[in-house]
Amino acid sequence: NKAKKLKTEKKLSKHKKVPVAESPKKASPAPKKKAVKNKKEIKEETEDEPVKKKKKGVEEEEQAVWKWWEEQREDNTVKWTFLEHKGPVFAPAYEPLPKSVRFYYDGKPMELTPNTEEVAVFYGRMLDHEYTTREVFNTNFMKDWRKVMTAEEKAKITDLKKCNFHEILDYFKKKTEERKAMSKEEKQRLKKENEEMVKQYGFCIIDNHKEKIGNFKIEPPSLFRGRGDHPKQGMVKKRINPEDVIINCSKDSKIPVPPAGHKWKEVRHDNKVTWLASWSENIQGATKYVMLNAASKLKGEKDWQKYETARKLHKCVDKIRAQYQEDWKSKEMRVRQRAVALYFIDKLALRAGNEKEEGETADTVGCCSLRVEHIKLHNEKDGKQYVVEFDFLGKDSIRYQNSIPVEKRVFKNLELFMENKQPEDDLFDRLNTTILNKHLQDLMDGLTAKVFRTFNASKTLSEQLALLTNPDDPPAAKMLAYNRANRAVAILCNHQRSVPKSFEKSMENLMKKIDQKKDEIKEVKKQIKGIKADYKKEKSVRTKTLYEKKKKHLARLEEGLTRMEVQATDKDENKEIALGTSKLNYLDPRISVAWCKKYGIPLEKVYNKTQRDKFRWAIDMADQHFKF
């Protein structure tokens, strides 16, 4: 049985079009199979598939794969029965600046106490950054910096404009250059030290399996940047000490030892959570966690469950849509508002949006927190009736701009919701995320705005792949179709990025290569024409062989040109779209795996090594017939 499974895996690694597992036709629990205790893989040799010798490291890695998706799942609430780890790695202690590197105030050198100097270094290192030109950043920095100063320093340092951090910046620039200029031996030594740290702290034992930890290093203290125009930018992110950290492990494990002279805030044994350590950061008061790597069982199970929940929506989405359309006519204003909000979440893949304390976070909104100023209504726009124009800052301060035609009843309801309101008033004043989420749970167990988003994103990818993929196209054109399908999802989810700085130069280089390739093709065609003329005069074997050789050369050149032209199109179309976010978070990976297997596209073209590890369960589970 084990040999059969591993033979399948071997075929999979060659990207042959073979069924790997029965594709689930509907949301289903994990296949009921006994847990495999011995994880060593058995490779079978077949006539057409000789066994290739592999490097030792690769073999060890394959042996370590835990096929948790083949095991019987019993209790969803219990995440583990045994958990052991070494705890997190803390940021190194502050190293004072050499005496030759000075801070100046009002043109005169000034010696700072270690705590004050450390915070000055945070700012000095950022001097070249645009952040240090922002008023909010500088005001917040100065306020927090003064908190660590002595009374004497406070009395003297009162104006940031009189502070000179340039020697600090120059010192760290020099250190960066020194690191780059390190000898090969020094680099190897550092690499070895890092590998030893990963070996010791980067893994844990969970239910008798060794699993990689995602983020075992605690972030060093620094200045908070935030995304967009964040009101807390420039504040000091404090150093995290063992006394701030809660450790989570099993009672029968070796409890992690805190650094000398320190103790943990608390040691817990909670097997209903997946984190290994936690602490609160001082800027937002948010809880931070040490979690397992994306390729781990706990993360993989969570992903799988997320996509299975989204697939369940297929069964009841028509009923839900009919219900919210009926609710547009409700006599209750709160029901109408809820129904219109749900329509936007479904149609536009908007996030629900969370209520935030004013001034505490950037002014970002979601569906429930939309204000009157965020939408404009047009009875007619660009030849379309009942158009709603959106313009607001969404998650991560990404601007959402979209004009869409809506149902007449939705349009009329929006007019009603906006009546007698000021621009800064809530559009949905009878609705919040708590009310909406409770309603979604009543409609379907596990349903959230994110599930709707995942469902519509995955459904869009499936439909677009079916529409855009031509089975007769070469692999490069198929990949263009895949990226276009992925782009349709990224646009739906508003996953944008700024045009990369290197875009113009890289595009220019690619266009030069395309022109060179065209010149080569022109030259070879000219040669073929000459050889053809020679062959008409004298039908020799040598001329015929040369003709065939040149024809093959031309075919290779034309194939290369097609590949480059497709690459240029793809590059240009994706310059402002972030494809990775939806691919990793909203698209059921089994859709992509099935597409690759169906059309013989290597998985490496769609997922890099880290992503293939993350979605190992999907690669093993889905065959070419999988349907979302």
From TrEMBL:
Protein family according to the UniProt entry: Belongs to the type IB topoisomerase family.
Keywords: Coiled coil, DNA-binding, Isomerase, Topoisomerase
Biased composition (Low complexity): 20-30
Entry keyword Transcription regulation: no
Active site annotation, chain numbering: 586 (o-(3'-phospho-dna)-tyrosine intermediate)
GO molecular function, one term: DNA topoisomerase type I (single strand cut, ATP-independent) activity
Protein name: DNA topoisomerase I
EC number: 5.6.2.1
All residue ranges annotated as the DNA topoisomerase I eukaryotic-type domain in the record: 223-600
Pfam families for the chain: Topo_C_assoc, Topoisom_I, Topoisom_I_N
Coiled-coil intervals, chain numbering: 173-200, 507-567
Function description: Releases the supercoiling and torsional tension of DNA introduced during the DNA replication and transcription by transiently cleaving and rejoining one strand of the DNA duplex. Introduces a single-strand break via transesterification at the specific target site 5'-[CT]CCTTp site in duplex DNA. The scissile phosphodiester is attacked by the catalytic tyrosine of the enzyme, resulting in the formation of a DNA-(3'-phosphotyrosyl)-enzyme intermediate and the expulsion of a 5'-OH DNA strand. The free DNA strand then undergoes passage around the unbroken strand thus removing DNA supercoils.
Single biological process term from Gene Ontology: DNA topological change
Reactions that this protein is recorded to catalyse: ATP-independent breakage of single-stranded DNA, followed by passage and rejoining
Domain of life of the source: Eukaryota
GO cellular component, one term: nucleolus
Biased composition (Basic residues): 1-18
Region (Disordered): 1-58
